[in-house]
Amino acid sequence: MKTVTPSPFKKLTLITTLFFGLCSAQAFADSQVINTLINELGRSFDPNVQTELVRTLKSYNQSSDVRYALLNQLNNGMNFQNVRIEAARSLSNLISFQEVSQALINAHDSSQDAYFRSEMIKTLYLYAPQSQRVRQVLISNLQGNHDERIKIASAFALKKSLDDGNTRQQLLNLVRNRFLSTNVRTELLKSLYNGISYSEVRNAIQNIALDGSEDINLRGAATRIISVAPQSRSQRSALFNLLANSQHASLRAQAASGLKLQMTEEDVRWLGLATDPRTGLGRNPF
Predict the structure, then answer these.
(1) b/e string for 110-149 if b means 16 or more Cβ within 10 A?
(2) Which distant-in-sequence residues (6+ apart) come within 8 Å of 40 by Cβ?
(3) Interatomic CA distance for residues 182 and 174, integer angstroms
């Protein structure tokens, strides 16, 4: 009996058909999930349920239906504050859409509540690198605003703007400013981590870690950043110096830990990184 060998073109057609069939099935399933989540969002009046629905919708925010549902939650000034904040966070990685960036700025500008305004500022961390005007406002907040929450949020929002030379220099000047609170300066250090490849940034962080006249908590934050950053010879020398000579056990312990050359999940969360250096994958920085 003669064996008939299937044509490779027929095999390819079958594989293609199966592939598109699976994609269509997945798209249908996603559509069902999206419709269910949006419908429940419209029905629910419980802020905890609404917050979780908005948080889940972020996984589907490439859908225009989801984007507009999240915008509706953000733009509704009568909505629960936590729901609006979560909607803003879920929209933050869609900043390339003009309606999203404008909605985030409008939400900030229309509120008198410092906490809410600070949370809106944080969501601009991907917009700041694209807008000189936004960067100038954030720097101005750090230099002159009297509310610590606004200052910390502004430092956070500049974490992706370190490739801009002027912004980088402004943050370096600010982190050296001892009139700023330790909390604000610590947030500045965390943002400066994202520019650790620049020698002036590395040197500034090392100098704070080694400066015995600095606040011990700020020195601890600087030492932690040296510990988890890709280490140069000078960074490792700074850790050796702290381990051998520091009179503070907490700094010596941090220096010892840093010599493991290992970043942990706790470090990634503490730094509020938008990209995990261990995997190269994006993540929620909030």
Answers:
(1) ebeeeebbbbbbbbbbbbbbebeebbebbbebbeebeeeb
(2) 49, 53
(3) 11
What sign has the CA pseudo-torsion 87, 93, 95, 96?
Answer: negative
Distance from chain centroid for Cα 236: 27
Whether 87 and 74 have beta carbons less than 8 Å apart is answered as: yes
Q: Output the pTM of the full model.
A: 0.87
Give the pLDDT of the chain (286 residues) as one tens digit per residue. Answer: 555 555 555 555 655 554 545 445 455 458 899 999 999 998 989 999 999 999 999 999 889 999 999 999 999 999 999 999 999 999 999 999 999 999 999 999 999 999 999 999 999 999 999 999 999 999 999 999 999 999 999 999 999 999 999 999 999 999 999 999 999 999 999 999 999 999 999 999 999 999 999 999 999 999 999 998 877 788 889 999 999 999 999 999 999 988 887 899 999 999 999 999 999 999 999 9
Residues in the chain: 286
Burial of 66 (0-12, 13-18, 19+ CB in 10 A): buried
Alpha-carbon distance 38 to 47, whole Å?
A: 15
CB 103 within 8 A of CB 80: no
Cα–Cα distance for residue pair 213/155, rounded to 1 Å: 23
Phi and psi at residue 143, to the nearest 5°? -85, -30
